[in-house]
Amino acid sequence: MQVLVTDPIDDAGLERLRAAGHGVETAYDIGDEALLNTITDVNALVVRSGTDVNEAVFEAASDLIIVGRAGIGVDNIDIDAATEHGVIVANAPEGNVRAAAEHTVAMTFAGARSIPQAHARLRTGEWAKSEYLGTEVNGKTLGVVGLGRVGQEVAKRLESLGMDLVAYDPYISEDRAERLGAELVEFDTCLERAEFLTVHTPLTSETAGMISTTELELMDGGYLINCARGGVVDEDALAAAVEDGVLDGAAVDVFADEPVAPDSALLSVDNIVVTPHLGASTEAAQENVATSIADQIDAAFAGAPVMNALNAPSVDESVFPRIRPYIDLAETAGKIAAQLLDGRISSVSVSYEGDIADEDVELATASALKGVFEPLEWQVNAVNAPQIAEERGIDVTESKRLQSDDFQSLVTVEVSNGDDQLAVSGTQFTGGEPRIVKIDGYRVDAVPHGKMLVARNADKPGVIGFIGSVLGEHNINIAGMFNARRDIEGGEALTIYNLDDSVPTDVVERLLADERMIDVRYLTLNGASDTK
Ligand SMILES: NC(=O)C1=CN([C@@H]2O[C@H](COP(=O)(O)OP(=O)(O)OC[C@H]3O[C@@H](n4cnc5c(N)ncnc54)[C@H](O)[C@@H]3O)[C@@H](O)[C@H]2O)C=CC1
Ligand SMILES: O=C(O)C(=O)COP(=O)(O)O
């Protein structure tokens, strides 16, 4: 598999990918145009904040499986476009949290004690001792906007230095804030009470520009520290607020456009301390995020759960071995059901019974959808299948029942076209053999693989012989078969054949021409049926 790395990551990540046998190409500072040309046969792309992974990238990247963000913020990646193209986006949400928190604390002090300014003057021989009267954090109020992983670590550190905490985060509980010793308050209150305000939200449509002139005026003095994302704080408004004395100072690590333009207003105001997006730049953080992303890429290539996938159902590694067979069975059951039902599919229901009902089955359900949609030749995988269902107005339901009548675990995929339904169930026998055990109400025992013929016929003597001889005449070898009939003798029967060879349409038609045959479908479990 081919991995392209377009922002510098730690060698440990590159080595891990190479050790796993993948081809790794680094192209730091690659331009947009060159990226579009290079990405065409790449299977994984690794980025930090320096690469714009937009829709055009996904359009060009037909073999792309995963984009790994060696860090936290994913505002430079078009996740909707990734999902539409079935590409996993994963980040490394833990590895640089402490680095970002420490840098925030460092920037707080740098701003409050004018460390960079004093340093610069001393380097030119000026002993400007009397010009710098700093502000202590001890006894002051810290306002935290966004009390997530980084915000919490910053809060803990600055609280231990004697600060009182207020926080604004509409998505966390009061309990969580309280446990940190922070008072959860409204946004305006947070701005009004903060003597130091630190921003730790992601950049989203909701947070873009959330702090501008009006908000800075509410602060009325004090310091603003932004080590989250440039677009959250309006840069011109911040520069003006510090310049005009509305704020005492600011410290900024991140910019709306990076690298920041040399004429940015933020670079020319005395009391604004700046760093070039260094929050995550420690050895430990870079090693952590690079190896985390390498592991996730390797998992994605192997079809295993991707721990921090942002747009695909993710499964805990410890439960994956238990649910893996049902992920495969759900896909197979979905494929069979879709190939046996005519008409436009309007709903899919996936149900789990027995032990499997006790597990997190989101990935298995996505896999069932993939199975249903694949025979329809839609470009689909478990990442985009739920979205495809939604876009096409297909109802998807998932249900669970802890009891199972006949099997330890059973997964059933039922498809409906509005008039008719068709359900296919699968289980895993002890010893690891997957089996399809029910098709459209018939109790069967079929090995789900390769080429299969499903025939429904009148339950009369000689029908199986007839099918066998027609297949034989066409040199189609039968590898195995299972015959089932509905409740009463002389009613309807269903026979499943596992075949070594494909069944051409004219052979299906020849079988169907016999009046004893009710329905005959040739289906493949490796791709679209060639009779539909
Ligand atoms: N300067 C640097 O090098 C680094 C910057 N970052 C930035 O920090 C951000 C936060 O990282 P984490 O704390 O790990 O993310 P997180 O997801 O753990 O926390 C973000 C918090 O923001 C809150 N939030 C979302 N929308 C909000 C809104 N409208 N108002 C208030 N709060 C809101 C969320 O509820 C969540 O608690 C990242 O998205 C990234 O942009 C992260 C690491 C390094
Ligand atoms: O992890 C993040 O969100 C960061 O902002 C770090 O960015 P970087 O990897 O240094 O470009």
From TrEMBL:
Domain of life: Archaea
Ranges of residues in domain D-isomer specific 2-hydroxyacid dehydrogenase catalytic: 3-311
Listed InterPro entries: ACT-like_dom_sf, ASB_dom_sf, D-isomer_2_OHA_DH_cat_dom, D-isomer_DH_CS1, D-isomer_DH_NAD-bd, NAD(P)-bd_dom_sf, PGDH, PGDH_ASB_dom
Catalytic reaction(s) noted: (2R)-3-phosphoglycerate + NAD(+) = 3-phosphooxypyruvate + NADH + H(+)
Pathway: Amino-acid biosynthesis; L-serine biosynthesis; L-serine from 3-phospho-D-glycerate: step 1/3
One BP annotation, GO: L-serine biosynthetic process
Documented EC number(s): 1.1.1.95
Family: Belongs to the D-isomer specific 2-hydroxyacid dehydrogenase family.
PANTHER family associated with the record: FORMATE DEHYDROGENASE 1
NCBIfam families attached to this UniProt entry: PGDH
Protein name stated in the entry: D-3-phosphoglycerate dehydrogenase
Species whose genome carries this gene: Haloquadratum walsbyi (strain DSM 16790 / HBSQ001)
